[in-house]
User: Which sequence fits this backbone?
């Protein structure tokens, strides 16, 4: 099925929200639905749309997969409590790290995350709670990149020929499927999503696993989580579309306290983009890059090298995996 984009200029946020809420109510009938909130713009908008449509009949969960940014679960649960949306925290670190153990191929890692998410965590929640529908924030760029074979985005199912009802036991509703990031942000503002969430840089479904080259272990994720916190602190307010830190697999010789340290390499990426389809590296000042390198090597144990990516997308992609 060819999807027709609704551009930010075409979008009438109020009318769109009403139409989608009606559609969600029609699909769910008098049943219940479930949705995963990650704190990104897409899932936050879908959470508000779903609650507008279904009220308490929508069960919203935050899946703690062990791959999220520092303090994220707490921050998002509190933020949504302030919007009168109750979010249940589901702990599933072991499921995700178990699924990822030993994998280094990017597509296999993505598949393992998809399976852990839809089959193990949601399959269990749906069997336990009786919901027959899952609401999720798949957007047009996610679909296009997956169908084009660039990379399998974690939330793509039917477009890959997967029938979620047969495979996992629930139907999937995707209320922002025809929108891209700028339009989703517009919709979020109209729904009353706080600026702190609306203006947030995109964050991928596979979370920090999309930024660890090689095996994704709790220790390697902990390292990139610390580097990410520094990059986000320094680049917040830069106006860039997205910024991130990547952990490489290769080690290099560095020196600390006059001795050799065969350590890790972190790559920083900062993107100017409209909708993630193409991107250019932001021309950050060298002083800022200096500060970033000094802080990452000084504050993240084991890192001896920091690089800045100056490649455009394409041929690069925004994330590393
Ligand atoms: P790439 O790395 O393909 O990313 O240039 C394009 C945009 O999509 C985000 N991204 C994802 N979002 N599930 C998502 O919901 C995913 O599996 C996924 N992979 C990448 C990425 O952060 C960027 O904004």
Assistant:
């Amino acid at each position: 099925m060819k999807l027709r984009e609704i551009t930010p200029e075409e979008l009438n946020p109020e009318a769109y929200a009403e139409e989608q809420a009606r559609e969600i109510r029609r699909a769910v009938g008098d049943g219940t639905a479930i949705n995963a909130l990650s704190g990104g713009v897409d899932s936050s908008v879908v959470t508000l749309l779903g609650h507008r449509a279904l009220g308490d009949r929508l069960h919203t969960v935050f899946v703690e997969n062990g791959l999220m940014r520092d303090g994220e679960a707490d921050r998002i649960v509190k933020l949504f409590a302030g919007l009168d949306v109750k979010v249940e925290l589901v702990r599933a670190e072991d499921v995700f790290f178990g699924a990822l153990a030993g994998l280094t191929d990017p597509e296999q890692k993505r598949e393992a995350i998809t399976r852990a998410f839809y089959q193990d965590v949601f399959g269990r929640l749906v069997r336990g709670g009786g919901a027959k529908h899952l609401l999720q924030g798949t957007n047009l760029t996610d679909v296009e990149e997956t169908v084009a074979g660039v990379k399998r985005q974690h939330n793509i199912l039917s477009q890959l020929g997967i029938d979620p009802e047969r495979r996992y036991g629930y139907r999937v509703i995707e209320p922002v499927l025809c929108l891209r990031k700028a339009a989703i942000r517009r919709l979020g503002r109209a729904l009353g999503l706080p600026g702190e969430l609306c203006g947030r840089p995109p964050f991928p479904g596979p979370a920090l696993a999309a930024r660890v080259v090689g095996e994704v272990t709790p220790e390697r994720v902990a390292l990139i989580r610390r580097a990410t916190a520094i990059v986000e602190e320094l680049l917040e307010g830069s106006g860039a579309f997205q910024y991130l830190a990547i952990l490489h697999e290769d080690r290099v010789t560095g020196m600390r306290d006059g001795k050799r340290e065969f350590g890790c390499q972190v790559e920083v990426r900062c993107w100017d983009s409209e909708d993630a389809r193409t991107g250019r590296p932001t021309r950050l000042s060298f002083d800022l890059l200096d500060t970033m390198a000094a802080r990452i090597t000084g504050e993240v144990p084991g890192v001896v090298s920091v690089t800045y990516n100056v490649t455009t997308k394409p041929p690069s992609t925004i994330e590393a995996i």
